[in-house]
Amino acid sequence: MTMARTCAAYNLRRASRLVTQAFDQALSPTGLKVTQFSLLVSFLLSPGSNMVQLAHWLGMDRTTLSRNLKVLEKRGLVEMVPGEDRREQQVRITPAGRKLFEQACPLWFRAQERVVGGIGHEKWAALAKELRSLVAGLK
Amino acid sequence: MTMARTCAAYNLRRASRLVTQAFDQALSPTGLKVTQFSLLVSFLLSPGSNMVQLAHWLGMDRTTLSRNLKVLEKRGLVEMVPGEDRREQQVRITPAGRKLFEQACPLWFRAQERVVGGIGHEKWAALAKELRSLVAGLK
DNA sequence: CCGCATTGCGTGTATATACATTTATTATAC
DNA sequence: GTATAATAAATGTATATACACGCAATGCGG
Q1: Sites in chain B below the pLDDT cut of 50
Q2: Protein footprint of strand D, defined by Cβ closer than 7 Å to any strand atom
Q3: What is the mean pLDDT of chain A?
Q4: Nearest-CB residue to A134 (from B23, B118, B135)
Q5: Is residue A3 part of a domain?
Q6: What integer pLDDT is reported at residue B130 of this predicted model?
Q7: Per-residue model confidence (pLDDT) at position B122
Q8: Cβ–Cβ contacts within 10 Å for residue A55, how many?
């Protein structure tokens, strides 16, 4: 029964659940979940990309991205604008979205410090690097 | 904008998504998802525990566990039996559940090999250890 | 042009997840 | 012993996730 301890899905999913809870709690004054915060970051980092590109970068199904966007759109934090290719939708952050994002940043930072502090920044840096390798092997 | 690369939630959630997809695909002949497979493992490992204990061990909200169980129960893979304390529910795997679990094991193994093979077993062992430290710091 | 493959995106359905609240049972204070 | 606190679990609601499928726009071979 070594499965329980070594299973990649089990270990990653459990860590993901707990870390998500920590970040969601920290971000709760803004009403943002960490998923939504990450989406805002990715829009800011790659303003011109369409949904397919974003989804691939996030390692997230296209339809998941689509539905997560709806939540942000409903709150008026982002808006969808059709691209030149009229099949495409592009995402644009609204002023309200940008403002909320800036309010969220220090909260994010505190959560990150708390979570990463548990093992130390150097170990986290190494861990994150391994995670990226793992992800690269699956994409 | 170092957030994008270092954010613990982002990195873990993305890795979790991709790894989950890999395991779910591998397990698809059984109709089990890796979440469900993990639940079966945990029931087999700790037969007497109630939901609170299981949820804590899994780093999962009680209500999430409750609802994930429903899916297994609906398929007749587990059954709920009331404990001595009539507030408690105990989980018991049915023969059908045990049989399906055994069918799933080799599929799980192949997925694990594929995922872990991307970075090597030793690196995975180290990574899993760090993940457990991280989790321990949050519980 | 026109027909068809491709591409980008949305919907239907199902599971996964958690917080707030509620219900039922047990334990405890008095 | 009863009133109240504490505990175990389920429900209501909302987001997160992905697969199968369908629709609209584009590109391309003839």
Answers
A1: none
A2: A 33, 35-36, 59-61, 63-64, 67-68, 71, 74, 85-87; B 13, 17-18, 20-21, 24-25, 50-52, 62-63, 66-67, 69, 80, 83, 85, 87-90
A3: 93
A4: B118
A5: no
A6: 94
A7: 93
A8: 17
